[in-house]
Structures are given as structure tokens and as C-alpha cells.
Amino acid sequence: MSQVFDRRSVLKASGVAAAAAAVGGAVATASDVWAADGEPAFAHGVASGDPLPDAILLWTRVTPTPESTPGSGQGPTVEVAWEIATDNAFANVVGSGKVPTGPDQDHTVKADATGLAPATTYYFRFALGDVVSGVGTTKTAPAADAAVAHLRFGVVSCSNLPQGHFAAYRYLAERGDLDAVLHLGDYVYEGGGGGVRPHDPPHEIVTLADYRQRHAQYKTDEHLLRLHSLVPFVATWDDHEVANDAWSGGAENHQPDTEGDYAARKAAAHQAYFEWMPVRNESDKIYRRLRFGLLAELSMLDLRSYRSEQADPFDGDVDDPNRTITGPEQMAWLTDGLTSSTAQWKIVGNSVMIAPVLIPPLPKDLLGPLLKLLGLPEEGGVVNPDQWDGYTADRGRLLDTLADNGVRDTVFLTGDIHSSWACDVPRDAGAYPGSPSVAVEFVATSITSDNIDDITGLPPRTVSKVIEGALTGLNRHIKWVEVDSHGACVLDVTPAAAQMDWYFLANKEDAASALSYARSYRVRTGTQKVQRVGSPAGQGGA
Amino acid sequence: MAATFSRRTLLGGAAGAAALGAIGAVTASTATAAGDLRVYVLVVDGCRPDEAAGEHLSAVRDLAAQGTSFSQAKSITVAETIPNHVAMMSGVLPERSGVPANSVWDPARGEVRDLGEAGDLKTSTILDRLPAELGLTTASVLSKDYLFGVFGERASFRWTPEPMLPITNHAPDIFTMGAALDMIDDHDPALMFVNLGDVDRFGHADLSGSSLKILRTLALIDTNLQLERFVDHLKDKGTWESSVVILLADHSMDWSLPLSIINLTGAFDDDPLLADNVTIAQNGGADLLYWTGPEESRAEAIVHMRQIAEATEGVLSVHDPAELRLGTNAGDVVAYAKAGWRFTDPSVVSNPIPGNHGHPATEEIPFVISGGHPSVVRGQVSSAPAHTMDVAPTVASLFGLSAPEGGWDGQARTEAFQGALVGS
User: Is B240 domain-assigned?
Assistant: First the structure.
């Protein structure tokens, strides 16, 4: 055991853990997050992320003094120690170090633990003085050239705190069989207001202090903290990490007259994100690639920072070749990676849907909630211009690249739309199934964010079925859509198939809500087509 | 090292038994079966991975379930029939085999021709080395005349493809499989190399290839019957448990609409430097471009060829043949088509067929190692990047045949077998 992490420290940590546990059930506000006795505290948990074969990013946030609340800009600069071991008793410590932090980083701590062994479970913790954090568990990625038989990822998106409890995170934490959790965006929401649990601060967040405070609030949710402490995250952002329907130069939910310069807001939001999330970042760039042996390569996209403004749903030109959703640099990075990868499954963490979705004609009472779910005006529209449907030139470039180069086994994992989808991704949807599918897309539903039954106030699985039938009837490549339920997904990957299992919450307003298995689709290697499976992976699935 | 599968070692008596005893994982039954080892390489010409996994090729799925399938398997470039069959049997790349494509410019003859003559293949193959070095018999049963031609008299026993269909110029699978079964019954070769041409030939001609794939589907159904017939024959004969079956495609297939054609000859004719000084060996999804003008203008001409080809609609990319390790007879520039396009040179009617290959869109293939032999690993899918050129080193490992001079370019797919392999 190291000098920093001595027996006395560990005993102190128990006290901190108890204090943190007392927060329990509900979430805490910024003033709750330091230890009750005035000692430093690790009240926002520990986390890890972006696993590499030989390294893992470790994260925590320390509250060194009572005034060092998130977003306060107050408190001293301190040096936080960390260590990582192969056993949870820390008898075999394989890495350690110290990281300075202070108000400039909102007292967040990031340590890149290197020199690790591939595909290995590790335990880690932090210390400031005598106070030691809780113990986190994490796992490195397999070696790049390793023959990997199996991977399993949690897949989540859209966790709006006032709209429910994060019981879906609890479900993933309890599984104990995940190599990583892939978060596809909308990890925090920018709005103010109440609901099941009020946001902190209570107003729409705009400043750096606001964003820091909001991230801190989310990281006091017991279910999220537990999941972070047990499984490494690989996360990207969507729009709500800044503001609704964000694009490179603005957002639908940003009013310059009252909220100031958008670039400043975006910079503040990104700074807080990088401070508070266990992601590696080069300057402001979040799109990145992680490898999991010969079996899979994961490309996490940023579809907000470089995109052109969304086209008007009525007279905008969604086909304009000069408009982009990725930006040219990210598109070149993505297509180069997909065509040159030596990994079998090319998994793309994709915040908004890429499969074409034509909005069906429906009675006004049904079309209205669907348009609201898609973020479209009441007058309707043929497509959702916030998705890849609004940037067809970029989609064509990407899908043509897959077809022209014979790239197979590409899987888009998507969030954003608060509903569950399984789709083939044809090169030419109008000619489908004559036009071959070049990839598949699995869309994870929201952890809590509202969908059709929440919007209509009608019982789930009633009128929603009409909407779902109209969507699949008009869009033949969409094999399944479910617009009522919330929960989490599990992606199981083997050389034979990639299978997505959906698990749905019984009641998102209940922190103790159960989740139950709902449905599975898989894509078998070489086919580029989704296929329904009758049971979760490992139980007769992939 | 020990001789798990080597007939020669087993025939060697006490020494062979001692060697086998050194491998703990090899059981007595394995050793007995190894003495009768037979390897069959079955090529479903032009088969796509999605077809191999689909509803019409249940025989392939069954073989995959009983063996190892490779989910990242690819042909070598150029994704054509002759170079990939040569790669399978030679285990080396075209720069060493001398066979980079189906069709090349032959300056000595002053013509573009298929590489379908015995002298075109410049390296040894396992068809000739197994008899010469280990005293084993080999056989070739190849449905296409140019395949029969390029392998010449390398195999111990050879079937002359017949009857040949007049338009597709290949022997239908029902006759090819009949010949393969006769070959087994009459000569019992240790290695037999079979090409089933229906799926490719009917795919080429399928005018509904970009939609319904009517001819193609009929061919898949028939080929499936022939594969079932093959497995049933071995089981009926009682040799299934001593057999290793390597089933793969040489390339896959891509279909283009009538107007999705690329004619580089016309584009080059508009360039004063290139006009009448470039010859094109058209290979469906790939064009091999040869400068035939003055040598001192070659470098400048290559720049022109690349620029014009890159700017032509439907062209995916252009390459230096050396970069692709294609060898000196592949010309000065190689151009690939995009998916859904095809080259037609020299004239716009030179290539009227809708189904083509040769371009990167057609490099993905099914590749299965199966059979009844107890050393075959069952029900495994591997992400290893297998290639057609891996067949020869895999077969060589099974029989204990050493690598050729200069080594293999391919790699023995040892993950498909349990226990140590000779030569691995």
C-alpha cells in the first residue's frame, strides 16, 4: 500500500462514502457536495473512460474546502493523488501519480493511467490528504491485434434529469458484464425548471459556472455515480450539452439578444464537459476512435460542432452539397478510418439518426406529438432536418464510401430521438430493398427524456402503435420503431454477429423502477441487414 | 515438429507414432484419421458474403456451423477469377505469380488477352509441389477454360471442363460436381481443387442483378444442391471424418445499370499525348492502363492517365501497380470503379454485362474451413483477416509441406484447427 493511501486514509474514506450515500435517492445541489465535517470530499464519485489497450483515463472531482462548490471558482489549488491496482485491496499497485487541480478546472481531476495490460480489470482511487475517494473499477481494451471472441457494451443516451430517475443506469451497473458504456449524447440538459427532480441551477444554463453546476448536479445521482464507478464510459455529446438543436454557429435554443455570444456559450459548455467527463480531449475535439482488438473499432462522432445550420423544413435545401453535418475534416477522418480499419465491426457512435426517415401522413392528433418528438414545427415537414436527413450530401459521401470500398459490418449506434429503432441503412432508400443495405443502425431510447406517451399524456402502447406502423410502412428499411418506452440497451459483439438488446423501464418517475427485457435485433456478419432475435444475447441470441 | 496430418510420417511407422505421441491434444482417433487426410478446396465463384449467409446456401451455413468461418475474408486485388485461383494454389501475390488480373496487355503478341495459359503462371503451386515433394496425388476440377489452362498439367489428375455453355463459356455446376465426385471415386486425391462457376456466370448475365437477381438466385439454389451432393458423397463413402473442406469465393459481385459505364479509351483519345498510345486491359471493375507510346514520355503519360481517370465519373481511385504489388505486367496505372459502375473498354459496348467484379466493392468473400476431420474447430467465427492466398499455406501446413522459396505471402489459418499443425 502506498504512503498516500495508508490505513487511516481508507478509514476516512468510509466516512465520506457514508456522507455521499446519505445524499441518496434524490440528487444533491451544489451546496451539498462536501463532507459534513468540513473535510475535503470526493462527493461526485469516481469514473473512468476511453479505454486503450495500455491506458485508461481516471476521473474524479474533489471539494477541498466548503466554499469550493462546483462552478464557484473558489477554493485552493491542491494536488490529488491517484493509484491503480490489479486488486481491490490495492496490494498490487501498478500505477500512481499526483495531479494538481483548482478553481480553473472546477477542482476536477483527470489522470491518464498508462503502462497497463490489455483486457484487464483494474481498481483505482484518489486521495487528498487523509481523505480517500471510493474505489472505482475499470477495464482496459484488448490489444489491437488480439483475436477477441466477445465484447459487450451498454448503450445509452438522453438523460434529462427533471423528466425522471436514472434507474436505467442502475440496471447497467448491476449487470456486471459490460466492457464499457457508450453514451451517445444528451448526458446533461441545458433547460431550467422542475419536473420529477428540479434542475440546479433552476434556470437555463448559459455561463461556465452554470454548466459546471449542472454537470455537478448530474454527478450526484446515485445510479449514475454507481455506473461511473464500475464501468468505463466512452461518451460523445449531442446538442443538449450546449443547447437544443445546436449547430456550429448557433442553436435553436440560443437567443443572442438575451443570452449573449453563442461562441462563448459553446466554449463554456465544452470546457465544463471536458472538465466533468472522463473523456480524452485534444483541445476542443471530441471525435475519436478506440480499438477493441480485431473484433471492433469504435468511432465516436461529433455531429454538432462543425455542422451547417439546419435547413428550413419547408424551403431549405437539405441536398445542398455545400452543407455539412460532420465538417470536411471529420468526414475525411471517418471515411479514412472505415476504409482502412483492420477490425471487423466498425461501430460508429452517432448522435443523430442516419437512416432516412420519411414522416408519414397522419391525423393531426397523432402527427403533432410525432413532430414534437422530432423537434419539428406543428406545420410538419417531410424529413427531420436535424438528423442526417438534413444533410444528404454528407450522408451520400459516407454511404458511398462504404459501398465503393466494400466495407462491411458497419453499425451505427444512435441516440437523440428518445425512442427505439432497428434499421437497415440502404444506399438508396427509394429503391430499397433493390438497393442494398450498406450498414445497419440501432437507436437507443432515452434514459428519461420524454417521448410520445409523455407528450400525449395517453397510455403507452395505444395510439403510438399507429405512429409506429405508419413509420415502418412508409420506410421499408425501418424494421422496428417503438416510441413510448425509456431504458437502456446492451450491444453484444462477436465475430458472428452484433446484437442490440433493448431493456425498458417500468416507470421513469420511480428511482427504484425495474427494467425488463423488451426486444432484440442483430446483424450477422457480412449481411448489413437487421434481423429480429427472440432473446437477449447470451441466451440464444448472437 | 510432429506430424499431425502428414501421411508420410504416419507411413513412417515407429518414428511417426513417436512424433504423434508428443502432441497431447491429438487423440488416437485423430491420428488414425490424419493418415487418410483429404483436403478439398471448393470455390463458389463470385459468391458474396451476404449470399453465403443467406437463405439459398444452407450447405455453406452448415459447413460454417461445423467449422470456422472468417468474417473479414477478402480476395486479393485485382478481384478477378484467375489471379485469385492462382493465389489460392500458390500462396503468393501477383508480383510473384505473374497473374495480376484476368486480362492483361501482352506486348509480345500485341494483344490484350486472358492469362489462361500454363506459361502465364510463374511460380510453383501446391498442386504440383505436393506430388513432387511429398508423393501425394492432387486433382483439379475447374469449370472455366482459362482456369483449366493456367494451371496446365500441375495437378496429378485434371478434368477438362465439359460440356461448355456457349455464352457463359463454362461447364455447369451439375457437371463439374459430377466430375469432382468421379475424381474422388476414381483417383482419391489428397488435394482436390474445384471451381463451381454457375453463381459467377449467371450473376454476370443477370439483368435483374441490381434488383431481383433472378438468374443469380436460381444459380445459388442449384449450387447449394451441388454442395449438399458433395458432402453427402463423402459421408456415404465413409471419408467425411478424414476430410477438410475449404469453401470460399474468389471474389464477389457488383451490378451496374446500363448507363453506369466508364469508357476511359474515349477520354484518353481526347488527350493529344495519350491518343492512340494507351492500351487498356478491361477487367470489369478494374482497368489496367498501359502506355504504349515512346518510353521517354512514359512518366508524363502516367500523370495524364491518372488525372483523366480520376476526373472520370464512376472511377473510384487510381493506383500505381507496384503499390498494389501486382507485378510488371499489370501496366502503368490501375483504375478501380465505384460500386454500381463498370468499365467498358475499348468501346462503350465492349462490356455489356451487368454483373462485374475487380473493384474494391467486390473484394469481400465467404471463407469457411470445415469438414468432418476431428481436428477442425467447430462453430467458430474468426475476425482474422483471411485472404484467398491463405489457402496454399493452410493446405501446406496440413500436409507438412514447407514454404516455397521466398516464403508465403499468405498465412496458414491455423485457428481453424485444434492441435499443432505440421509446418505451423
Answer: yes
